[in-house]
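Hi, here's the filled form for the chain we discussed.

Project: internal
Contact: R.S.
Residues: 316
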Amino acid sequence: MPAVCTRELCVFSFYTLGVMSGAVEDVATGAEVVDLLVAMCRAALESSRKSIIFDPYPSVVDPFDPKALAFNPKKRSYDRLQKALDSIMSIREITQGSYVEIKKQMDKLDPLAHPLLQWIISSNRSHIVKLPVSRQLKFMHTTHQFLLLSSPPAKEARFRTARKLYGSTFAFHGSHIENWHSILRNGLVNASYTKLQLHGAAYGKGIYLSPISSISFGYSGRRNFACGYMSGLHCVLKQTSRFLQSRNLNCVALCEVITSKDLQKHGNIWVCPVPDHVCTRFFFVYEDGQVGDANINTQEPRIQREILRVIVTQSS
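And the returned structure, exactly as it came back:
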């Protein structure tokens, strides 16, 4: 899937040539993925740290003036962006009608809602796919499980080279849902001692991981949201039972990490100072503040066998 560069020339080329213009038409087959992308975008936008973590900021061409940007990273308007995001209808609701009719309904709510939804989908640089029940990791105790490959091909190639030399294992990485809007588009980065750091770096600079699920769940955050919808229609939608309507979501990634001497292990806290040595593999979402089994240890043979079984099945 091509990604959209934030340079204005690229944005206008995207709009003019129609690259990925049909992406939203396929939401019926990936409704939960689109729901997830919207939820991540919403969490980042509503964060008190949005000026830091809402990256990238959308580049969206004005539907009434193809020569201008309605959303411009150089002239940020979080309030206007919030209004458009609030007007994006639930993907579960969207899939009940034809795409043409859905677009008309969204355009009535806000002419920038549909262009923003297109941007949210097309700017995602990660390969993220909902796992069928038969290929899910049962010990994670959630039906919201995704295959998540967030590394660009070049990094994945470097990772595989390192894996041949040093081997690899699996560990969890927990981060609040507000951070994943950026992670899916920029990849996992070493945030230690930067403005992105949130929890400190007690064990030095690097990407923090743990083989123990409870530790990473602790970093996934827990936050209660008030209703932020701006119309009566959306408040009605919020009352219905659909995936990711909750404003209290926890998420954790299961990563593959290179077991070279660079990997620093401080008990159950692992620090990997080499970003190329960590690649996301799975992503798990829990609604309404629920979390999975706190006692999962990725180093247990039975857990490793199950992870490898799912990976082999998924790649075959």
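Let me know if anything looks off before we file it.
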